[in-house]
Amino acid sequence: MVSLIAAATSASAGDPALNLRHGGSGASVDYSLEELQAMPSTTFSTSTLWTEGVVEFTGVSLRDFLEMSEITDGSLVATAINDYAVSIPVSDAVEGGPIIAYAMNGAPMSRRDKGPLWIVYPFDSRSEYQSETIYSRSIWQLNRIEAIE
Amino acid sequence: MAFISLGYFGNRIYQEAASLRVSPRDNVQWTLSRLEVELLRFVVSLSPGDDADLGHVRKRFDVLYSRLEIIKAGRVFEPLRRDPAIRGLIGEFDVFLSDALPIVDGADDELRAGVDDLLAQADALRPIVREVSLNGVAVFAAVADHQRNSFERLLLGTGLFTFGLIVILGMTLYVLIIRNSVAAAKEREAEASSARLQAIVRVALDPIVVANAKGCVIEYNEAAEQVFGYSRKEAIGEDMANLFIPPEMREAHLAGMTRYLADGAPRVVGKGRLVLKAIRKTGEIFPVELAIGEAREGSQGAQIFVGFMRDISRRVAAEKDLLVARDAAMAADRAKSDFVAVMSHEMRTPLNGVLGVLDLLGDTALDDRQSEYVDVATRSGEVLLRHINDVLDITRIEAGRMEFKQEPLEIPTILEEAASVGRPVASARHTRVETRTDLAGGYDGDANRIAQVLLNLVGNAVKFTTSGEITVSAERVGAAAAVDLIEFSVADTGCGIAAEDLNRVFDDFVTLDVDYDREAGGSGLGLAICRRIVTAMGGEIGVESTPGEGSRFWFRVHLQTSQGLRPEVAPALDAGPAPAAPLDVLVVEDNEINRMVANRMLSAAGHSVTEARDGLEGVEAAAAHRFDVILMDISMPRMDGLEATRRIRAGEGLSAATPIIGLTAHASPTEQATFLESGMVKCLTKPLRRDALARTLSEAGEPASRGESSVDETDEENGDENGGPTILDDDVFGDLASTLAPPELREMILKVCAELEAAPAVIAAETAAHDVAAAAHKAAGVAALVGASELHSDLAALEAAAKAG
What we know:
The structure holds two protein chains of two kinds. Chain A is 20% helix and 36% strand. By secondary structure, chain A is of the alpha+beta class. Chain A starts with a helix and ends with a strand. By secondary structure, chain B is of the alpha/beta class. In chain B, 58% of the residues lie in helices and 14% in strands. Chain B is built from 24 helices and 17 strands. In chain B, the strands form three sheets. In chain B, strands 6, 7, 8, 9, 10, 11 and 12 form a seven-stranded mixed β-sheet that branches. In chain B, strands 2-1-5-4-3 form a five-stranded antiparallel β-sheet. In chain B, strands 14-13-15-16-17 form a five-stranded parallel β-sheet, sandwiched between helices. In chain B, helix 3 (54-73) runs antiparallel to helix 5 (84-105). Chain B is rod-shaped. The two termini of chain B are 108 Å apart. Mean pLDDT of chain B is 79; it is low at 565-576 and 703-724. The interface between A and B is medium-sized, with 29 and 28 residues.
């Protein structure tokens, strides 16, 4: 745990936590962790394939995030630190839907533990969220989002 | 149970589907290969050595680290972690990472210094990671296959189960369909049967009524509507007693029904057809023929009574008419025979008076003219008598009342009789009358009737022949068992009969003697009667003729060969009245004229006569005095002849044993048999003729000797009446003596002695019993003739013994 926290702090210095780029216009916005944490937060508990038991996730709801950025349709290409990328349709961003999680069980997530940002769906809440497609969209170590029309 | 199984399967499928849907299988292969990639990137980040971008290194390390964490902790990798080999590999990896952790988390220069080391270690990990990855592939592939297989099996199981269920359902459906069609067929059949029965009941011409146990009408057909008058609507549901049974019989009916329902013993039900009375709606009571059967509606159904009825009013009326007609016919028949009887009596009686008186008159002193008158009158009377007899004969034959006697015949005698009657007239016409036959006796038949026919034929022959020859003959033309066919014929050399008349001659009222005066009386019935008589005897009659040459009338009859052999020597016939000894005669006769006639006749013959006016007087007279002979008229008032005879015989009067001769107008053999039964010895038919009377008296006159019953001349036993046979019966011999002239008598005695002397030898000479009996019989007859009674009875015994074998 100590190492994780240490890792978390080293990461925050320098690179922005999340970069959002508008595919059409080419505009890009950087967000820091604090900025994300300042956004209206959503918390839910769910079990996942990659964790043990039920975990509480806290983050900004993807819907809130996109609303703020005025992205209403199209799709998002979410890329992780390890260059894993997945396309998420904007329609997935619904109330009670996925969040860009920055805290797991109340504690920030280190890079060594799928952090700092992880798009987590409330898998347990709906059986539709328990499909391969959704699992593939649950991208961790998220650092870039490109909005495509 | 099918439902439970289905539920089980359904649940399992659901669970499997759910588990598939849930698919807690993140792309395991991706993750494992990712591990390798991230290790490689870490290695790559370390490769520049001193020029390595430390931020990059740290980032890559974190990524690698998090990846391993997922493998170590992720739920989905549980199967992987179970594998001990993989657990070992993960452990090694883990060691590396935890060793590298302080260096990576340390200061930059620390990290820089350790890069080469890390690089070497990381490089060394590459094969391990490869192995984990590959093993994982295999493990998860197996898992996936297993899951697929089990799901496949589940689906298959479900499928089979469902299929089986469908098959069962199909079979059930099939069975149901079959049952349904069978049921439908049965229903159709029942419908058809019901419709058929309905039609039968409806169409039946006779009323059919069905009632239940309570007596209510439940079925009622059209015929019933017509017969009883109630419409179907009116009848159904009503109590049948009120509808069809006359009021006075209802109580009995009710009692009967109650009793039957209680004890089940049928008196009317199922007992066939009964004739009862029924009542129509109009109130008319009529006879009905009824048959009631009991049934049940179905195997458990109600008890019903089915009644089949027929209105037999017409039949009953027809039966009554028939009875009436039959009675009328019988009455008519009776009237006819009464007529015959009455006419027979009524016509003969006065005729008796006429002829009798004429006879008497003829005996008195008459001059020639008076004699002639008497002759004429007598002849006319005789003609009249003949006519009456003819008519009565015809009536009798037509009424089927002619009876024929079966008594021994002497054919030569009969022929001779007929011939002799015709001879007087024939002689006057210069015609000869001959007889010819080689038959003798040995037949039974009715001699009188045969003689009657012959007489008729002879009479005709004489009428139509002048200066000619008439032959009366008889010959046997056929033989069979116990019966011979005898043909009698009368042939003449007269004028013959024209061919066209040959068929007519036997018809009623046909006469051909146009050219000759009808002196013999030609009512035209003579041949007609002959034909009737012959036909009634079962014979045939016919004629052959050649005009100008003559005619031959013939008739054939079957005569039975006589059971008893007859003596070939016939006793003398028509030998004229033998002078009889004076007898004490009682005449019992109600008719005054007849009485007078009889009296005169008897007196003229020398007998003393006592008269009685009816049966009662007769009995009294007979009781008071012993008479030699009693002449008893049959039909008398107060007491008739039969009763009187019986009384005399049964009584203790002096004349109890006296022979009684009946006088009757009736002549049928049955009647005569009755007379004889009552005790008479003989019968004479009226009108009473002197000759017949004299003959009869001479035969019956000796009360002590012959006293047996017979109408004809032949006689059998004698002597037994008065204590045993004597060697020589004086009376018999005496009679013979008085009958024959002395020379004849002597000749006869000699002949007889000769025969009797030869008899034993003759008899002994025969060997066959049959022939012995015949010889004995012959000798017995001869003995009887002369009155050798003892000899006669001995010979008779011998005959009987021989006959018996």
